[in-house]
Write a structure and sequence with these properties.
Helix content: over 70%
Strand order of the largest sheet: 2-1-3
Number of helices: 21
TPR repeats: 289-322
Largest sheet: 3 strands, antiparallel
Strand content: under 5%
Organism: Aequorivita soesokkakensis
CATH topology of the largest domain: Serine Threonine Protein Phosphatase 5, Tetratricopeptide repeat
Radius of gyration: 33 Å
Keywords: TPR repeat
CATH class of the largest domain: Mainly Alpha
Structural class: mainly alpha
Order of helices and strands: HHHHHHHHHEEHEHHHHHHHHHHH
Protein name: Tetratricopeptide repeat protein
InterPro entries: TPR-like_helical_dom_sf (IPR011990), TPR_rpt (IPR019734)
Length: 419
């Protein structure tokens, strides 16, 4: 009797297994004919019996489920995420599925990444982060994590950003890639090609010369910089300092880590150290106007007015239309005005005081005239900058340029009326 029960039981299990596989096969055929809703119906019938199935059958079930969800998924993140989870489960149950699912996984990644780009552009950073992380879960490509962390930073979800950045570092990802480049013979512009073959084809046209290979910049410095700045934002300067110290010890000449260290020093109020580091960074990239501009700001804060003036001037030599540098240089020229006004107001009515007053008045006029060309150029670059218009109105009023004063006053009133 026991033997008969056992045989009956085995037959029952076999029947369940056969019925389950039958529904999965039906679902597979439905997916191939693009009947995704029908496929999900079959899978729903098989799912209740799934616990008794072997791993191979379960993997097949989740692989088909992922494809059925992906098919009509479009931009529906709920379906795309469920598809990613199904693919991930299928591969965990049967690693061979990774090769079999290569094409649908590629399609899913494209849908998730394209969706994340749209979300990022719309400043929907949380959704962009989730989509990129879902892409990482099926691709295991750390670049997905890197961009997910960046969106988390933009969305001020700092805990998530730190978690993902740490995972990026643990993976060894640097973002460095090999590029095949050549120089346009006419323009001198260096162009990167998608492959060595495409670069070689371009060379044969005669338009390009100087074929070379180069490695793109590492993203490790940016990752560490962002992590340290997040720690500082959270008030954890100890972790920020320790992280940067370790990173710099490993790569003391890495310029991107130097930038990260400089940014951290500035954020922590150590302007002198920031200035020291920036001097070293400038030596590695002496044609970068942004570096000189930043040095201008830090030297100004340290009270090194002459150095600040030198750096702003250098930034403008490299980039004559640098609006921010023009404004800051003009502000630096005007920074001594308060002392002049204070002394003028403190003078009495003696002959000596009147003489000194006239001297100070001329000095003040000269200060305005020195600053004026920089503000006028900034205004020509960007006439909608309200602060520049206000500066110009005040200066024109002080130096007796009545017509220009009225013009700027009218413009300023119109700007203020618009809010």
């Amino acid at each position: 009797m026991k033997t008969r029960i056992l045989i009956t039981g085995l037959a029952f299990v076999s029947a369940i297994s056969f019925g389950q596989k039958k529904e999965i096969k039906k679902a597979e055929k439905a997916v191939k004919s693009n009947s995704y809703a029908e496929a999900l119906t079959y899978l729903g019938e098989a799912e209740g019996l799934l616990s008794a199935a072997d791993n191979e059958t379960k993997a097949q079930f989740y692989a088909i489920k992922g494809q059925a969800l992906l098919g009509p998924g479009g931009s529906d993140f709920t379906k795309l995420k469920a598809s990613a989870e199904a693919f991930e489960t299928a591969i965990s149950l049967d690693p061979k599925m990774k090769d079999e699912l290569a094409d649908p996984i590629q399609n899913l990644r494209a849908a998730l990444i394209n969706g994340a780009i749209k979300d990022q552009n719309a400043q929907q950073y949380k959704l962009a982060t989730e989509k990129l992380y879902a892409s990482y879960m099926i691709s295991k490509d750390p670049s997905d994590l890197y961009y997910a962390a960046g969106n988390a930073v933009n969305g001020k979800d700092y805990d998530t950003a730190l978690k993902y950045y740490q995972m990026v570092l643990d993976s060894g990802y640097t973002g460095e890639t090999e590029e095949f480049i050549a120089t346009d013979k006419e323009t001198g512009e260096v162009k990167a090609f998608e492959s060595e073959n495409l670069r070689n084809i371009a060379l044969k046209t005669g338009q390009y010369i100087k074929p070379e290979k180069r490695v793109t910049e590492s993203k490790k410095g940016e990752v560490l910089r962002n992590m340290t700045l997040i720690y500082i934002e959270q008030g954890d300067t100890e972790k920020a300092t320790a992280l940067m110290k370790t990173a710099r010890a490993e790569n003391p000449s890495d310029v991107y880590l130097m930038r990260a260290d400089a940014d951290m020093s500035y954020k922590m109020g150590d302007v002198a150290r920031y200035n020291e580091l920036m001097e070293k960074i400038v030596a590695t990239d002496p044609e970068n106007p942004e570096l000189y501009f930043n040095l201008g700001i830090s030297n100004d804060q340290l009270g090194n007015k002459e150095k600040a003036l030198e750096y702003y001037t250098k930034a403008l030599e490299l980039k004559p239309e640098y609006e921010a540098a023009l404004i800051n240089l003009a502000a630096l020229k005007l920074s001594g005005e308060d002392k002049l006004v204070e002394e003028m107001n403190s003078l009495g009515n003696s002959a000596a005081d009147n003489k000194r007053y006239d001297e100070l008045k001329i000095e003040r006029q000269n200060t305005y005239k020195e600053a004026l060309p920089y503000l006028e150029k900034a205004y020509n670059i960007n006439p909608s900058n309200q602060n520049v218009v206000k500066y110009l109105m005040n200066i024109y009023g002080q130096i007796g340029e009545d017509a220009k004063y009225k013009e700027m006053k009218t413009k300023l009133e119109a700007m203020e009326a618009k809010g």
